Amino acid sequence: MFNCQRKMTKQFSISKSARLRSTPFTDLIEEQGVKSYTVYNHMLLPTVFEGIEDDCEHLKNFVQLWDVSVERQIEISGPDSSKLVQMMTCRNLSKAIEGTCYYAPIIDEKGFIINDPLIMLVDKNSWWISIADSDVLLYAKGLATGLNLEVIINEPNINPLAVQGPKSFELMEKIFGPTILDLKFFRFNKFVFDGHSFLISRSGWSKQGGFEIYVNDNEKGRKLYRELMNQGKNLNVRAGCPNLIERIEGGLLSYGNDMTIEDNILECGLDDFVSFSDEIEYLAKDHLINLASKGIKQSLTGIKIYSEYFSLNHHLPIFFDGEKIGELRSLVYSPKFKCCLGITMINKEFQSKKGIQDLVIDNSTYKVEISSLPFSQ
Ligand code: THG
Fold first, then answer.
1. Which of 64, 103, 159, 300 to mutate to test the pocket of ligand 1 (most atoms within 8 A of CB)?
2. Which CATH architecture has domain 73-86+94-138+264-296?
């Protein structure tokens, strides 16, 4: 119905330095033709190889290697580590076991969201918090000092490599053997390549299936990268990266875009990960119980915008009948849905309206429909 006509904006390059960290794979992905980067956890995150539409189609059909070193691991160990980790998250981790990944929002003392990581118990009294884009290490250190907890907190040299897409299973089997296929979604275990044991989880920031390899030895990791590329040739493997179209279609939330420290966790649609159980204690608990009893006035939701692509570099206010009803936070044109898909924070009253409405965004009027996440046709 609509074309994806992207207005060409002037392109700039990025000045690299030690402060804007490269990864052990940066030179390898540059050989593979990375076209754009963003910055995430003070580090380079590739965003485009061939083009976001081409990359998306490829991801949905084949297998891609993603340099997601930016998913930094904050390691918390020591006798009080479990207490500290639970203090920061509203998810009940009291029964957490080794070998399982927990999507567990980190919140401040008022319930505002600080990060939405995966948390893993990797050893007795040792946790990895696989963070999204914010400085969780500083928050953890501040809390540990303030609460006088006996913990060690650091960011080890671990650089995750994701293998994503429907053919990722076949490729990983070639390298690690058939036992890798026994790994269930959101579970992790150790697997050996070239005499080195890698922690691998069945996870990743796409809905196409796959794995994440937590590379803790740069040279072994680079060898593994080359081997995945070689063994993947007949599966049409390519270097790739988290894809804007695929992640929005699949409703995967992006911290810093869809939700920020100004959003209360109750408004983020993550109710499954908020526990008020007596078993646990965390900073914001009493405050959240009180807030929950009052109910929320707005929440994150998807919208379909029947329009061609328009660009979005910051949150845009959304108006209905002359009144501000919310904000557009992420946006992409989806060739599959043949319209733009947006992730928005919108008031509950408007969300209850059925059918297509006229909304004003950035001084233009659009035909818009509320849609739950993930998007469906
Ligand atoms: N993998 C790892 N670390 C990460 C990410 C990742 N750190 C940064 C960022 N991504 C953290 N945020 C998310 C958000 C969503 C998911 C994972 C990490 C995710 N969600 C599933 C979904 O929505 O379908 C399942 C959630 C559930 O039901 O528990 O995968 O990707 N290592």
1. 103
2. 2-Layer Sandwich (3.30)
